[in-house]
């Protein structure tokens, strides 16, 4: 298993728009295994390809812990998964979304707890999101499926990860008057330069995914 280096703001590759995946190769699925391991290693609820410098349209999520916690009560029927024939299937995690499309969003909400692995140590500000989301995507084999979510955490996560695929990040969603870009970058630098973090990163031996060649790029 390899772990990939998660790029931190303001890395230029975080701004690059992803292009669709056309080649659902074995190499892609091996990549996804490492990509998912990277999400777990850094305790993310989701991770999008541009965050490791891969300008393609896919992300992974795992809501299991959140669904089981009290903070975001998983009311019945507020997270439904459907196969390509529109037949409801059980939700299993981690869940891979390739070439996703958010097709329906409604019921605007404001949240102030949104985090991002590309913004370690940065404070969070209000973001405007939608509570109800319908997302259509393909799995790691290219099979179509869809999700209907009215679960706040899951819906916010989908919008957040989908934004990454278009190079959109948290500060773009924040009130411009509520923060200074330099402060965010300083907080991130402070995190990166912390001796404990440096030691940890050295031990993890993370790989720069964007410096490698893959057949699905
Ligand atoms: Zn993020």
TrEMBL record:
Spell out the molecular function terms from Gene Ontology: metal ion binding; peptide deformylase activity
Pfam families in UniProt = Pep_deformylase
Please list the reactions this protein catalyses: N-terminal N-formyl-L-methionyl-[peptide] + H2O = N-terminal L-methionyl-[peptide] + formate
Positions with a binding annotation for Fe cation: 116, 160, 164
The question of whether Metal-binding is a record keyword is answered with yes
Q: What class of enzyme is it?
A: hydrolase
Where does the chain cross the membrane? none
Listed GO biological process terms? translation
So where's the catalytic machinery, residue-wise? 161
Q: What is its EC number?
A: 3.5.1.88
Q: Which domain of life is it from?
A: Bacteria
Keywords, in A-Z order: Hydrolase, Iron, Metal-binding, Protein biosynthesis
Query: Belongs to which family?
Result: Belongs to the polypeptide deformylase family.
Q: What name does the UniProt record give this protein?
A: Peptide deformylase
């Amino acid at each position: 298993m390899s772990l990939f280096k998660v790029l931190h703001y303001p890395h230029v590759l975080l701004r690059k728009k992803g292009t669709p995946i056309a080649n659902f190769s074995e190499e892609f699925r091996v990549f996804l295994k490492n990509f998912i391991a990277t999400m777990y290693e850094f305790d993310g609820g989701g991770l999008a390809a541009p965050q490791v410098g891969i300008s393609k349209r896919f992300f992974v999520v795992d809501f299991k812990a959140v669904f089981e916690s009290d903070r975001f009560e998983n009311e019945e029927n507020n997270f439904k998964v459907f196969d390509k024939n529109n037949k409801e299937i059980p939700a299993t995690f981690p869940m891979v979304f390739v070439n996703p499309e958010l097709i329906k969003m409604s019921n605007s909400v404001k949240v102030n707890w949104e985090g991002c692995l590309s913004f370690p140590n940065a404070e969070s500000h209000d973001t405007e999101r939608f509570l109800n989301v319908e997302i259509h995507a393909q799995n790691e084999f290219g099979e179509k499926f869809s999700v209907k979510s009215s679960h706040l955490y899951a819906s916010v996560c989908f919008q957040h990860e989908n934004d990454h695929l278009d190079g959109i990040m948290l500060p773009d969603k924040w009130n411009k008057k509520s923060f200074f870009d330099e402060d965010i970058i300083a907080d991130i630098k402070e995190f990166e330069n912390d001796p404990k973090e440096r030691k940890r990163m050295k031990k993890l031996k993370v790989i720069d995914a964007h410096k490698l060649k893959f057949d699905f790029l």
